[in-house]
Write a structure and sequence with these properties.
Elements lengths: L8 E6 L5 E6 L3 E6 L4 E7 L8 E6 L5 E6 L3 E6 L4 E7 L5 E6 L5 E6 L3 E6 L5 E6 L5 E6 L5 E6 L3 E6 L5 E6 L6 E4 L5 E5 L4 E5 L5 E4 L1
Antiparallel strand pairs: 1-2, 2-3, 3-4, 5-6, 6-7, 7-8, 9-10, 10-11, 11-12, 13-14, 14-15, 15-16, 17-18, 18-19, 19-20
Length: 213
Protein backbone atom coordinates (compact mmCIF):
# COMPACT_ATOMS: atom_id res chain seq x y z
CA UNK A 1 0.00 0.00 0.00
CA UNK A 2 1.31 3.43 -1.00
CA UNK A 3 0.12 6.27 1.25
CA UNK A 4 0.82 9.95 0.69
CA UNK A 5 -1.74 11.74 -1.47
CA UNK A 6 -4.32 13.77 0.44
CA UNK A 7 -7.02 13.84 -2.24
CA UNK A 8 -8.41 11.79 -5.14
CA UNK A 9 -5.79 9.88 -7.18
CA UNK A 10 -6.47 10.02 -10.91
CA UNK A 11 -3.79 7.73 -12.37
CA UNK A 12 -0.86 5.53 -11.31
CA UNK A 13 1.57 4.08 -13.86
CA UNK A 14 4.69 1.90 -13.74
CA UNK A 15 8.03 3.13 -15.08
CA UNK A 16 9.44 1.25 -18.10
CA UNK A 17 11.78 -0.77 -15.85
CA UNK A 18 8.97 -1.62 -13.43
CA UNK A 19 10.85 -0.32 -10.39
CA UNK A 20 8.95 2.93 -9.91
CA UNK A 21 5.31 4.02 -9.88
CA UNK A 22 4.23 7.56 -10.70
CA UNK A 23 0.89 8.91 -9.53
CA UNK A 24 -1.07 12.14 -9.87
CA UNK A 25 -3.81 13.55 -7.70
CA UNK A 26 -6.22 16.41 -7.23
CA UNK A 27 -3.97 17.44 -4.31
CA UNK A 28 -1.83 19.04 -7.07
CA UNK A 29 1.15 16.77 -6.50
CA UNK A 30 2.90 14.12 -8.54
CA UNK A 31 4.61 11.39 -6.55
CA UNK A 32 7.20 8.76 -7.37
CA UNK A 33 7.13 5.52 -5.41
CA UNK A 34 9.68 2.75 -4.93
CA UNK A 35 7.89 -0.47 -5.85
CA UNK A 36 10.06 -2.82 -3.78
CA UNK A 37 10.10 -0.73 -0.61
CA UNK A 38 6.62 0.74 -0.94
CA UNK A 39 7.97 4.17 -0.07
CA UNK A 40 7.60 7.63 -1.58
CA UNK A 41 10.78 8.60 -3.43
CA UNK A 42 9.88 12.11 -4.56
CA UNK A 43 7.03 14.60 -4.46
CA UNK A 44 6.63 17.17 -7.22
CA UNK A 45 4.42 20.09 -6.29
CA UNK A 46 2.54 21.53 -9.25
CA UNK A 47 2.92 25.29 -8.94
CA UNK A 48 1.72 26.78 -12.22
CA UNK A 49 -0.11 30.11 -12.35
CA UNK A 50 -3.59 28.73 -11.72
CA UNK A 51 -2.36 25.68 -9.77
CA UNK A 52 -4.34 23.17 -11.86
CA UNK A 53 -4.86 19.54 -10.99
CA UNK A 54 -3.04 16.87 -12.97
CA UNK A 55 -5.51 14.52 -14.64
CA UNK A 56 -3.02 12.08 -16.17
CA UNK A 57 0.68 11.27 -15.97
CA UNK A 58 2.95 8.75 -17.66
CA UNK A 59 6.62 8.01 -18.33
CA UNK A 60 8.59 8.41 -21.53
CA UNK A 61 10.11 5.15 -22.86
CA UNK A 62 13.51 5.98 -21.32
CA UNK A 63 11.92 6.83 -17.97
CA UNK A 64 13.59 10.25 -17.78
CA UNK A 65 10.60 12.41 -18.70
CA UNK A 66 6.96 12.39 -17.68
CA UNK A 67 4.00 13.75 -19.60
CA UNK A 68 1.34 15.57 -17.59
CA UNK A 69 -2.23 16.36 -18.61
CA UNK A 70 -3.46 19.36 -16.66
CA UNK A 71 -7.00 20.63 -16.29
CA UNK A 72 -5.92 23.97 -17.76
CA UNK A 73 -6.12 22.24 -21.19
CA UNK A 74 -2.34 21.91 -21.56
CA UNK A 75 0.12 19.04 -21.77
CA UNK A 76 3.44 19.50 -19.97
CA UNK A 77 6.68 17.58 -20.33
CA UNK A 78 8.57 17.37 -17.07
CA UNK A 79 12.17 16.31 -16.41
CA UNK A 80 12.23 13.97 -13.41
CA UNK A 81 15.84 14.55 -12.38
CA UNK A 82 15.80 18.35 -12.49
CA UNK A 83 12.15 18.77 -11.44
CA UNK A 84 11.56 21.31 -14.17
CA UNK A 85 9.19 21.78 -17.07
CA UNK A 86 10.75 21.07 -20.46
CA UNK A 87 7.91 21.93 -22.80
CA UNK A 88 4.27 23.01 -22.88
CA UNK A 89 1.89 21.69 -25.55
CA UNK A 90 -1.13 23.86 -26.30
CA UNK A 91 -3.98 23.16 -28.71
CA UNK A 92 -6.88 21.31 -27.12
CA UNK A 93 -9.95 23.40 -26.30
CA UNK A 94 -11.20 21.29 -23.38
CA UNK A 95 -9.89 19.02 -20.61
CA UNK A 96 -7.22 16.51 -21.66
CA UNK A 97 -7.68 13.00 -20.27
CA UNK A 98 -4.69 11.09 -21.56
CA UNK A 99 -1.31 11.48 -23.24
CA UNK A 100 1.02 8.67 -24.27
CA UNK A 101 4.50 8.56 -25.78
CA UNK A 102 5.24 6.56 -28.91
CA UNK A 103 7.68 3.68 -28.39
CA UNK A 104 10.56 5.73 -29.83
CA UNK A 105 9.72 8.71 -27.61
CA UNK A 106 9.45 11.09 -30.57
CA UNK A 107 5.68 11.64 -30.54
CA UNK A 108 2.85 12.03 -28.05
CA UNK A 109 -0.81 11.23 -28.62
CA UNK A 110 -3.49 12.92 -26.52
CA UNK A 111 -7.25 12.67 -25.97
CA UNK A 112 -9.64 15.39 -24.89
CA UNK A 113 -13.18 16.37 -24.05
CA UNK A 114 -13.05 18.52 -27.20
CA UNK A 115 -13.76 15.21 -29.04
CA UNK A 116 -10.37 15.19 -30.79
CA UNK A 117 -7.14 13.21 -30.70
CA UNK A 118 -3.87 15.11 -31.00
CA UNK A 119 -0.51 13.88 -32.28
CA UNK A 120 2.46 16.00 -31.19
CA UNK A 121 6.17 16.34 -31.92
CA UNK A 122 7.98 15.93 -28.60
CA UNK A 123 11.05 17.94 -29.59
CA UNK A 124 9.24 21.00 -30.96
CA UNK A 125 5.87 20.82 -29.18
CA UNK A 126 4.10 21.20 -32.54
CA UNK A 127 0.74 19.52 -33.03
CA UNK A 128 1.24 17.37 -36.11
CA UNK A 129 -2.32 16.06 -36.47
CA UNK A 130 -5.76 16.81 -35.07
CA UNK A 131 -7.89 13.70 -35.53
CA UNK A 132 -11.64 14.28 -35.70
CA UNK A 133 -14.41 11.70 -35.79
CA UNK A 134 -15.60 11.01 -32.26
CA UNK A 135 -18.90 12.59 -31.27
CA UNK A 136 -18.21 12.83 -27.53
CA UNK A 137 -15.36 12.96 -24.99
CA UNK A 138 -12.29 10.93 -25.96
CA UNK A 139 -11.19 9.20 -22.77
CA UNK A 140 -8.06 7.21 -23.68
CA UNK A 141 -5.57 6.88 -26.53
CA UNK A 142 -2.41 4.94 -27.28
CA UNK A 143 0.09 4.14 -30.02
CA UNK A 144 0.46 0.74 -31.61
CA UNK A 145 3.77 -0.96 -30.71
CA UNK A 146 5.28 0.00 -34.09
CA UNK A 147 4.10 3.60 -33.76
CA UNK A 148 2.25 3.56 -37.09
CA UNK A 149 -1.28 3.62 -35.66
CA UNK A 150 -3.24 5.17 -32.83
CA UNK A 151 -6.24 3.70 -31.03
CA UNK A 152 -8.77 5.92 -29.26
CA UNK A 153 -11.69 5.12 -26.98
CA UNK A 154 -14.57 7.50 -26.39
CA UNK A 155 -17.72 7.97 -24.38
CA UNK A 156 -19.53 7.93 -27.74
CA UNK A 157 -19.28 4.13 -27.44
CA UNK A 158 -16.71 3.64 -30.20
CA UNK A 159 -13.07 2.63 -30.55
CA UNK A 160 -11.28 4.11 -33.53
CA UNK A 161 -7.98 3.27 -35.21
CA UNK A 162 -6.04 5.99 -37.02
CA UNK A 163 -3.05 6.19 -39.34
CA UNK A 164 -0.39 8.33 -37.64
CA UNK A 165 1.19 9.60 -40.87
CA UNK A 166 -1.95 10.55 -42.78
CA UNK A 167 -4.35 11.12 -39.89
CA UNK A 168 -6.92 8.98 -41.69
CA UNK A 169 -9.49 7.04 -39.69
CA UNK A 170 -8.99 3.38 -40.61
CA UNK A 171 -11.50 1.49 -38.50
CA UNK A 172 -14.44 2.02 -36.16
CA UNK A 173 -15.32 -0.61 -33.56
CA UNK A 174 -18.67 -0.18 -31.85
CA UNK A 175 -18.50 -0.95 -28.15
CA UNK A 176 -21.47 -1.87 -25.98
CA UNK A 177 -20.97 1.10 -23.67
CA UNK A 178 -18.79 4.16 -23.04
CA UNK A 179 -15.10 3.31 -23.45
CA UNK A 180 -13.05 4.21 -20.38
CA UNK A 181 -9.71 2.71 -21.46
CA UNK A 182 -8.18 1.07 -24.50
CA UNK A 183 -4.74 -0.41 -25.20
CA UNK A 184 -2.91 -2.37 -27.87
CA UNK A 185 -1.63 -5.85 -27.12
CA UNK A 186 2.19 -6.11 -27.40
CA UNK A 187 1.88 -7.86 -30.80
CA UNK A 188 -0.24 -5.00 -32.18
CA UNK A 189 -2.87 -7.42 -33.51
CA UNK A 190 -5.47 -7.01 -30.80
CA UNK A 191 -6.74 -4.28 -28.51
CA UNK A 192 -8.25 -4.44 -25.04
CA UNK A 193 -10.93 -2.05 -23.85
CA UNK A 194 -12.93 -1.57 -20.70
CA UNK A 195 -16.22 0.07 -19.90
CA UNK A 196 -17.75 0.64 -16.48
CA UNK A 197 -18.27 -3.02 -15.61
CA UNK A 198 -17.11 -4.96 -18.69
CA UNK A 199 -13.83 -5.73 -20.43
CA UNK A 200 -13.49 -6.68 -24.10
CA UNK A 201 -10.75 -7.88 -26.45
CA UNK A 202 -11.06 -7.07 -30.15
CA UNK A 203 -9.15 -8.37 -33.16
CA UNK A 204 -7.85 -5.66 -35.48
CA UNK A 205 -7.39 -7.87 -38.53
CA UNK A 206 -10.89 -9.34 -38.11
CA UNK A 207 -12.74 -6.01 -38.41
CA UNK A 208 -13.21 -5.59 -34.69
CA UNK A 209 -14.43 -9.10 -33.89
CA UNK A 210 -15.00 -9.43 -30.14
CA UNK A 211 -13.09 -12.38 -28.67
CA UNK A 212 -13.57 -12.16 -24.90
CA UNK A 213 -15.35 -10.32 -22.16
Amino acid sequence: MFIGHSELIFVAEFSPDGRTIISCSSDKTIRLWDVNRGEEMKKIQIDFDIAPSTLYVNFSPDGKTVVLCLDDRTIRLWDINSDREIRKLVGHSNSIWCAQFSSDGQKIVSSSNDKTVGIWNVKTGERLKELKGHSYNVKRVGFSPNGQFVVSGSWDGTIRIWDVTTGKELQIIKNEDDVNDVKYFPDGQMIASCSEMVKFVYGIQTQGKKYKN
